[in-house]
Write a structure and sequence with these properties.
By secondary structure, the chain is of the alpha/beta class. It folds into two domains: 245 residues, Rossmann fold (3-Layer(aba) Sandwich), CATH 3.40.50; 133 residues, Rossmann fold, CATH 3.40.50.920. Helix content is 40%, strand content 18%. It has a seven-stranded mixed beta sheet with strand order 3-2-4-5-7-6-12, with helices on both faces. Strand 6, helix 7 and strand 7 form a beta-alpha-beta unit. Helix 1 packs parallel to helix 2, helix 7 crosses helix 9 and helix 10 packs across helix 13. The protein is globular and about 70 Å long.
């Protein structure tokens, strides 16, 4: 293993190189631009033997990836925020077509008002598109997850595109020391793709109809759902295999911190898990058994793993860095649904924080733990709480 210090964006690009991607189509957008710039450097220098396709939009980038993946190539793209929304039609097409595209989404708030800073609404807006969604906490996990993503996407039990979500600036532009696996190790973990009968053969052109009648459409969607369910097992297997090779495993679908004996647990996604873990340490120093459950996957949603991890927990704080106007919050709704379906009944309280890049500190998470325990002890129900809100109404106060 080679050690180096690089940013999250550079780590994603390095993962693409190590995975020996063959086609890259992308359009630049802050804060992901560095990813495709670095990949372009690898292609130009010959370090990555890939075709880099310059396109006029994100919609075209995903369209090019769809065509290349249908022809059997290992493909990659990256985007953020408005760019992901612009490509949304093709994102759904790639998911429904069961194509193993891998895409990095560097999470950035959605306009208006205009923002380049982090929250999670961009990726979560695509959660019904048929893509596996994996969320990373730090630079090392960003590198490792790119490589894992191709194993997952190309597994015959899955054959679904994979979205790697990393927090804009908080991970994408942060520099951290990491371990870089050798090319030989990655090759042993991620072999070259072998031809499949469903690849498009350019030497034997054919016309394909893509309209499904009411007699067949439901079956296509059923198979998509079954593939997503099957991805749960594959994500775990791939993470375990990577752990055996590198010593780094991330828990499969969920990452647990001090949850074995916890009385209160914070559930969340993304890089601020580190702040929550620090807060859990502070709470434990005060005699309160706090823990953190980081969802590595939002699709497939790890309901069974979540329920198992929380079965003996008194109180759960679900902290969203996203907003679905008219719904209490996205993760809160999905966590509650999973617990309800499996008959688990801990006290659950929702929080919304960090929208548009608003800073969230370990002390904020300490307050979340304390507020959740207070609500549990008082038997409270009620609205989701907003952390650090500076007024209500127009937002101009």
């Amino acid at each position: 293993m080679q050690k180096t210090v690089i940013s999250g964006n550079e780590a994603v690009a390095l993962g693409v190189k190590l995975a020996k991607v063959q086609v890259v189509a992308a359009y630049p957008i802050t804060p992901q631009t560095i990813i495709v710039e670095k990949i372009a450097e690898y292609v130009e220098s010959g370090e990555l033997k890939a075709r880099f396709i310059n396109v006029e939009s994100e919609h075209s980038a995903m369209a090019a990836c769809i065509g290349a993946a249908a022809g059997g190539a290992r493909v990659f793209t990256a985007t953020s925020s408005q760019g992901l929304l612009y490509m949304s039609e093709m994102v759904f097409w790639a998911g429904g077509a069961r194509l193993p595209v891998v895409m990095a989404v560097v999470n950035r708030a959605i306009a208006p008002p205009w923002s380049i800073w982090c929250d999670h609404n961009d990726a979560l807006s695509q959660r019904d598109s048929g893509w596996v969604q994996l969320w990373v906490e730090n630079v090392q996990e960003a590198l490792d997850t790119v490589i894992q993503a191709y194993r997952i996407a190309e597994d015959e039990r899955v054959m679904l595109p994979v979205m790697i979500c990393l927090d804009g600036f908080l991970v994408s532009h942060s520099y951290e020391p990491i371990e870089v696996p050798s090319q030989q190790l990655v090759d042993s973990f991620l072999p070259e793709k072998t031809p499949a009968p469903y690849w498009i053969d350019v030497t034997n052109p054919r016309s394909y109809g893509t309209i499904a009648s009411p007699e067949t459409y439901m079956e296509f969607r059923y198979e998509l759902q079954e593939a997503m369910e099957g991805a749960k097992r594959v994500v775990k297997e791939v993470d375990e295999d990577w752990g055996r090779l590198t010593g780094r495993s991330y828990g499969g679908l969920i990452d647990l911190y001090l949850c074995d004996d916890a009385e209160v647990v914070a559930v969340l996604i993304g890089s601020w898990a580190g702040d929550a873990k620090e807060a859990a340490d502070i709470m434990r120093s005060r005699g309160v058994k706090a823990g953190v459950l980081r969802l590595r996957s939002t699709r497939p949603f790890p309901a069974e793993d979540l329920v198992e991890a929380l079965k003996d927990v008194d109180a759960v704080a679900v902290v969203d860095r996203s907003l679905s106007p008219g719904l209490p919050s996205i993760l809160l709704s999905e966590v509650k649904a999973a617990l309800y379906e499996h008959g688990a009944k801990p006290y659950v309280k929702g929080f919304i924080a960090g929208l548009g890049g608003r800073d969230v500190t370990p002390q904020d998470f300490v307050n979340v733990f304390e507020r959740t325990l207070k609500g549990f002890k008082k038997g409270e129900t009620g609205k989701v709480e907003w952390v650090g809100l500076r007024g209500v109404g127009s937002g101009h106060r």
